[in-house]
Write a structure and sequence with these properties.
DedA_domain; single chain; transmembrane; globular; mainly alpha; VTT_dom; membrane; VTT domain-containing protein
Length: 192
């Protein structure tokens, strides 16, 4: 069943909208605090459809993701019990949050770096960093480097890959989409 290809085609059209950079900035900010959709879903089509602006889009995503991470950090520091904890519980992120706290105790700074670059929910780690009172400036530095590496990698792949990348994505998109859904469900069941 092909449902991901039409969504991808729509994302390519939306990526050329005049307000797409502002939406990318908003999504990047929100994804670091609470929004469940990864930034790459918007960044990749934007970089693919406008390759000359790919690195600009990566900078935009990086800056606003780090700003959102700073908000997540301060929410963890200031409003964890009354505001953040109920939201984490309602979204089913408490297991992730508990694991994030354990990882912070073991690895500190490097956890932020890993979470910023990997598909691990970054928002959980921004809040956990605040709750655990991780040193603020190293947190910001780790977020800036790791989010930048991730978003610039996506932008570079789309810019260099161009039409060939589009062709490969289009040919395998539904398979990738369904595999991702299955892996997400398995991960959710295992981490619950």
């Amino acid at each position: 069943m092909k449902i991901f290809t039409p969504i991808y085609d729509k994302a390519l059209i939306w990526s050329q909208h005049r307000r797409a950079p502002a939406i990318l900035a908003g999504v990047s900010f929100a994804e670091s605090v609470i929004f469940p959709i990864p930034v790459d879903v918007m960044l990749a089509p934007m970089a693919l459809s406008q390759p000359k602006k790919a690195f600009y889009f990566a900078w935009l995503a990086t800056i606003f993701s780090v700003l959102g991470g700073i908000l997540g950090y301060w929410l963890g520091q200031i409003a964890y019990e009354p505001l953040v904890q109920p939201v984490l519980e309602s979204l089913g992120y408490m297991g992730h949050f508990d694991r994030a706290q354990q990882w912070f105790m073991e690895w500190g700074f490097w956890v932020v770096f890993l979470a910023g670059f990997s598909p691990i929910p970054f928002k959980v780690f921004t809040v956990a960093a605040g709750v655990m009172s991780v040193a603020f400036w190293p947190f910001v530095l780790a977020a800036l480097i790791s989010r930048g590496m991730r978003f610039f990698l996506v932008a570079w792949l789309m810019r260099v890959g161009g039409p060939m990348m589009d062709k490969h994505l289009r040919n395998h998109l539904d398979t990738i989409g369904w595999v991702t859904v299955v892996l997400a469900v398995i991960a959710y069941l295992l981490l619950r």
